Amino acid sequence: MAVRSAGGVGRWVKRGVLLLLALLVLALLAAWFFLRGSLAQLDGRRTAAGLTATVTIARDAQGVPTISGSDRLDVAYATGFVHGQDRFFQMDLLRRVAAGELSELFGPKALVVDRPNRLHRFRARAEQAVAAMAPADRALLERYAAGANEGLNALGTRPFEYGLIGLSPRAWTPADSLLVIWAMYFDLQGRLEARELARGWLRDNSSAEQLAFLLPESTAWDTPLDGVAPPPPAPLPERAPGWWGKSAAKNGDEVAAIDFVDSVGSNNWALAGSRNGGGGAIVADDMHLGIKLPNTWYRAVLAIPDAAGGTRRLVGVTLPGAPLIVVGSNGRVAWGFTNSYGDYLDLIAAEEDAAKPGQVKLAGGDWEKLVVRQETILVKGAAAEPLTVRESSAGPLRQAGGRTYAVHWTAHAPGAVNVNMRKLEAANNLDEALAIAATMGIPAQNFVGGDDKGNIGWTIAGLLPRRAAPGLASTFPLAADTVGVGWSGWLAPQNYPVVRNPASGQLHTANSRQLLGPGAELLGDGGLDLGARSQQVSASLKALGAQADERAVYGVMLDDRALFMAGWRERALAALATPGASSDPKRAELVRLLKTGWSGHASVDSTAYRITRGFMWSLYELLYGAANADLHKLDEEARISTATARWPAVLARLLDEQPPGWLPSQYASWTALQLAALDRTAAELAPDGKPLSAATWGARNTAGIAHPIAGAVPALRQWLSVPPDQLPGDSNMPRVAGRTFGQSERLTVSPGREEQGIFNMPGGQSGHPLSPFFLAGHEDWVKGRPTPLLPGPAQYLLTLTK
């Protein structure tokens, strides 16, 4: 037998290595061309079925399109086309979140989202809503869907996300555009059930006097639009409830202050013409949302025909999946939204009886037969999961804490979703815009608008429930035998609360109490914010005087002064100043940093701000820890901070008044409690001998914004996320900023002066990491640089012809 020479073996090894390298190169090239193939078409001409005339899509250097057409339906088609090319996967996620269909893409791990969401059967509701639509509205969604599907099909390869998960996209339908709006119901009102459960637990485990103190209706921080002063606080009960101060945390547990980011946020405001030299109103809006890549919003300019035979320019942001400008200006009127946090959901205890199978009794009514529906959740890589939905006349049933509740949510009612927002395109003045707002089928929002004549106004955009009786009773679960409370049907638009042209020349909302006088009972409290942010905005706008311009109004969005947290720093220093308290080296270091490192801002280099914030949240954990542990058993989202955003005012009052009956027995004094909270904070911020001075706010508040695929394929995260920017700002100040939550856009505009408008957003136009538009504008958002609202000169032109 012949023996192969060493040289021959070497040659075969080299050939093998070269072959493997060649295969690797081919694989990389194939992957590269696959990824490149799913980039949007920016230039050229395309024939599009169904167009009545030519439509042009001109993009600037950042990829922002100006879509121009002589027919509104043609512009809707082209809007769908660019959305389908740049953001189809995002659109798909939105409709699937609303419909409870994420598991079809991501497998069993997504069932935790799909199970509760499918309970609401929004896909079936969307199909019914489309069928009942006026022909003109249905045609708008049909043409948008046709454009989205053509944009998707025109890509050289399927969007890269589908290649990574090994699936193909499903075509877009008109019903899907309504599901996108229902996805915003989850985003903006998704904690209402948990809130009611948390408040119900507090009611069951506290006296009436304790409950009134623990759940104040308002605080001194509130700055309502009607100028009504907050009422005096409730009397402080002699004793705390039994669960008070029994922390469930153990040594080494992570303090809520370290990881918690307040997810209540959004600001908007308007200055009347009298405040800017007699010109048009100035409107500003920065909606605070969870931030991912791509960003929630898609910038666009739509040039559409107007009633006079000319062209009207709409500028602002769209929501991928829908053909409308959501926030922006039409040249005559500008508008913006913040979440209104009203009371839009009731949990109604359902009485069941084994002798009456398939029936329930609700709110003092008769026994009624349930409608039972079988849903099927498709699961990638696993068997489909059946889900039985039991529906009562008040809504679907859910279980919590061993009880059954009917979920009576405005999102279920006919009319909860529509496309009446399109009517804002033709609004010629503020009054027309306010009237349109009351007819919109969206999650109820604070609508602040202004027109080119200088008028400003506020109302609620979205349908408001008509309540049988006002008051706090509806913010707790309703007993099965309750009569005369809850809601039924919609409030008539003429009965909506409205504020027009206040004497101050300014209006603002920031998720806190809008009204404390007449009209407040129409909204209720579905999680209203503390009011500190609102108060700071109001004072900042007042300080602008009578000659404000767009840049000055935009600057209020960047205000990161820690006015709310300053009082907590003073309390911490007062506790540490107690004789002997600072003999411990760590406490002495706390004193030094709180004194020398305080800039008065939530700045990235501030250790003092982080310590102060940690101190407040450590107290929260020590006093509410046991309650939070019990609440978590009811619902994952249920906690004291869900039940009330005003808990810091409750704790501040206790620390300032120091009532003996509220001091937990394990502490010798209120100072001892505060020192325990500071010790806890120091231990968490400087573990294992690390220096406390390194625990800056920026080290904690570092952007973690990423594409959803980064979670499914961690190896790609570096290409699918933003740089680890350290972000100034926090909750309870205008510049809300967290790791993955904050200002999803910043827009300031005076209608008719769009050329002077200002805009930022945290991500770019494209959802594709190889696109030059993927992170375009991100650095401007981080730095707060005022950049133009209108697109720059056209760099690309795509023409769609019939």
TrEMBL record:
Q: What class of enzyme is it?
A: hydrolase
Q: Does the keyword Calcium apply?
A: yes
The free-text cofactor remark is:
Binds 1 Ca(2+) ion per dimer.
Matches recorded under InterPro entries: Ntn_hydrolases_N, Pen/GL7ACA/AHL_acylase, Penicillin_amidase_A-knob, Penicillin_amidase_dom1, Penicillin_amidase_N_B-knob, S45
What GO annotations for molecular function exist for this entry?
A: metal ion binding; penicillin amidase activity
Entry EC number(s): 3.5.1.11
Pfam (any one):
Penicil_amidase
SUPFAM superfamilies, per the entry: N-terminal nucleophile aminohydrolases (Ntn hydrolases)
What are the alphabetically sorted keywords of the record?
A: Calcium, Hydrolase, Metal-binding, Zymogen
Swiss-Prot/TrEMBL GO biological process terms: antibiotic biosynthetic process
The catalytic residues are S266
Q: Where does Ca(2+) bind?
A: E196, D343, D346
**Superkingdom to which the source organism belongs:** Bacteria
Q: Can the keyword Acetylation be found in this entry's annotation?
A: no
Its needed co-factors are: Ca(2+)
Q: What family does the entry list?
A: Belongs to the peptidase S45 family.
Q: How is this protein named in the record?
A: Penicillin amidase
Q: Which species expresses this protein natively? A: Pseudoduganella violacea
